[in-house]
Amino acid sequence: MKLDKIILLICLFTSNIVCSQSIRDVQHLFKPELDNSTRFKSLYIHDSKSKYPDSIEVNGIITKISKGFCGEICQGGTIKVKLKNKISGYNHNQVYIITACMVDNIKIGTRIKVIATKYSKSDNACYYSSVNNIIDSKGIPFYKLSELETSKIKLL
Question: Which of 1, 18, 64, 65 could form a disulfide with 80 if both were Cys (CB 3.0 to 4.6 A apart)?
Answer without folding.
Answer: 64
